């Protein structure tokens, strides 16, 4: 007896909304868990070429944790393609001024690149404070323990 492999279709996928409180969670572990849930790898219906994931809302991004001396030694780089156009910011600066971008960059690095990755990335919403704008979707609270 042969078994049939089920392939997920875009119209058959049920998506849920989840809220994650990033307070004192390690950045890398948080980002990897978010990437798994955005892509849908935690579901049995996962198909690599279809967006099977859920929507994720991250609150308290300004309270995310970093281990060791990463606050001072880890740097984020941007290049404008002009001479002298390299901008370097430390993790401490990023956490104070751009906490949303810090989590978004970590998650983006773990998502597939290309059209599907950009589609998956649009389901991520990051907020520095405890409030978010997606109350109408009635998101479930997701507690992560590392």
Which band does the percent of strand residues land in? Answer: 15-25%
Which secondary-structure class do the elements indicate?
alpha/beta
Q: What's the shape?
A: globular
With strands numbered from the N-terminus, the spatial order across the biggest sheet is 5-2-1-6
Number of E-state strands: 6
- Distance N terminus to C terminus? 42 Å
- Average pLDDT metric: 95
Unreliable segments of 5+ consecutive residues: none
What is the helix tally? Answer: 5
Main pleated sheet: 4 strands, parallel
List SSEs in N-to-C order.
EHEHEEHHHEE
**Approximate helicity band:** 25-40%
SSE topology sketch:
Layout: E1 17-21, H1 27-39, E2 55-59, H2 70-73, E3 75-79, E4 86-90, H3 91-97, H4 99-108, H5 115-121, E5 124-126, E6 140-142
Parallel strand pairs: 1-2, 1-6, 2-5
Antiparallel strand pairs: 3-4
Helix pairs in contact: 1-4, 3-4
Description:
This protein is α/β, with parallel strands linked by helices and 146 residues long. Helix content is 28%, strand content 18%. It is built from 5 helices and 6 strands, in the order E-H-E-H-E-E-H-H-H-E-E. Helix 1 packs across helix 4 and helix 3 crosses helix 4 (99-108).
């Amino acid at each position: 007896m042969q078994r049939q492999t089920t392939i997920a279709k875009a119209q058959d996928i049920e998506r849920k909304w989840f809220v994650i409180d990033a307070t004192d969670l390690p950045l890398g572990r948080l980002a990897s868990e978010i990437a798994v849930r955005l892509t849908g790898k935690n579901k049995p219906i996962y198909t690599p070429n279809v967006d099977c994931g859920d929507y994720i809302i991250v609150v308290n991004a300004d309270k995310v944790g970093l281990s060791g001396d990463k606050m001072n030694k880890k740097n984020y780089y941007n290049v404008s393609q002009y001479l002298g156009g390299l901008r370097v910011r430390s993790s401490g600066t990023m956490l104070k001024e751009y906490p949303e971008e810090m989590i978004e960059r970590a998650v983006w690095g773990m998502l597939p690149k290309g059209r599907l990755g950009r589609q998956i990335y649009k389901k991520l919403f990051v907020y520095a404070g405890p409030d978010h704008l997606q109350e109408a979707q009635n998101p479930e609270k997701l507690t992560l323990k590392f």
